[in-house]
Amino acid sequence: MAIVGHFSDLSELRKLVISEMVPGVIQQTFEEGQLLAMLPGVRLNSRSLIYNREDVLPSAAWYDIHQQISFTADVTLVQKEVWLKRVIRQDLLDRFVMQTYNNPNDYRTEILKSLTRGVMRTVEDTLIYGSGSTEATTEFDGLDKLITIADGDAFTSATNLQAFDMGGASAPLTFRALRQLVNAVRPRASILLMTRTMRDTLAAVAWEKGINLSGANPMARINSSLNEFGKMVDFFDGIPIVISDYLLQENDNTGGKDDGNDSGMSSIYAIRFGSIADGGLSLVVGGATGG
């Protein structure tokens, strides 16, 4: 038996002291690639927003002097409508506990912090994999649905101007396809959004294995630089590479999350942020508080 002095045993001594608790809840899950902080906001005081896209552009013809000039009517537009959606989580708060449980953690504060984080994570996931193109649906369309994908997409009008299909899990990404992706977003993409695995693979090709371009002109280059916070950021052809922990492995030719997250395939998105009138990607929020 331990001799602790004065007290008959150690358990008696422990009655006089308590353990010290670190305030708050220690974060264990860290996720990168949040788009909310990057998206410009558009305030809406209505249930939906309607905008028109170019479809068939006007053209002209050459005429000689005194030649009859004909009237033309060939311009068409594509009208789009997006609706405000609500993301909500409701938990019970015990009034008695709120008034008494505040040492060392404030009960209400900790719950609100947890709720806020849960809502934000849900929104971030929906920004990529959300599905809801009509007013009746509860979600909005994420990147996975805004850009339709199919087998054989090749950045052409015959298949899909905005997507390229590498050909399944056995077909690796090529620098040519990545350069074509950059060219497809005009005038210039703001970021390249990809998985951590894809970013690490590109970095390994550039810095560890090296790229043998003898006898060929490089189409683009990968480099790194420090941002304003001192964090190393990779660039492809001068466009920042943003890794997203919300991007997962996906289904072949149909997109969407792969149930087992082991398909070996994932997407890379070239995104241009900006106002809707400028053709950029933005976030529409309701009212002065976004609620």
TrEMBL record:
**InterPro entries cross-referenced by the UniProt entry:** GP7-like (IPR048813)
Can you say what this protein is called? Phage major capsid protein
